[in-house]
């Protein structure tokens, strides 16, 4: 098989960095971030969150090869903040959003258990 061992898709090797940044010299205030051992899930969340920032002109990602667990995220800002600062803020915002989602989901789950709904998702469930 051509596919790598499953553990190689998420465990960093010795000396391997999670994220690297390379300035895009063709465009002002732009960088390309390479994320190792990550996939479309994180790439799409970061791209989407970056696009919500008023200081970000462009954010997009690509996966160079489907069998390699990396993606490249390109970020261009208006110059008032660096692409790195925009990415860090997007990460902080995502952590906040996911924490809120977790709390709301847990609250709904507990309320359904208290009411006595069928929470196992059976035929008579929700």
Describe the 3D structure.
- The chain is α+β, with helices and mostly antiparallel strands.
- It has one domain (6-115): Gyrase A, domain 2, CATH 3.30.1360.
- Helices cover 36% and strands 21% of the residues.
- It has helices spanning 40-51, 83-115, and strands spanning 19-23, 30-36, 56-62, 70-77.
- A four-stranded antiparallel sheet has the order 1-2-4-3, with helices on one face.
- The mean pLDDT is 89.
Q: What count of helical segments does DSSP give?
A: 2
The low-pLDDT segments are none
Strand elements, count: 4
Cross-sheet strand order for the largest sheet: 1-2-4-3
Total discrete domains: 1
Our Rg estimate from Cα atoms comes to 19 Å
CATH topology: Gyrase A, domain 2
N-C termini distance: 41 Å
State the secondary-structure class.
alpha+beta
Report the biggest beta sheet as strand number plus sense, adding barrel if it closes: 4 strands, antiparallel
Strand composition percent: 15-25%
Assembly status: single chain
Quick one: CATH superfamily? RNA polymerase, RBP11-like subunit
Q: What sequence of helices (H) and strands (E) makes up the elements? A: EEHEEH
The CATH class turns out to be Alpha Beta
Per CATH, which architecture? 2-Layer Sandwich
Mean pLDDT value: 89
DSSP helix fraction = 25-40%
Mass-distribution shape: flat
Topology, element by element:
Elements: E1 19-23, E2 30-36, H1 40-51, E3 56-62, E4 70-77, H2 83-115
Antiparallel strand pairs: 1-2, 2-4, 3-4
Helix pairs in contact: 1-2
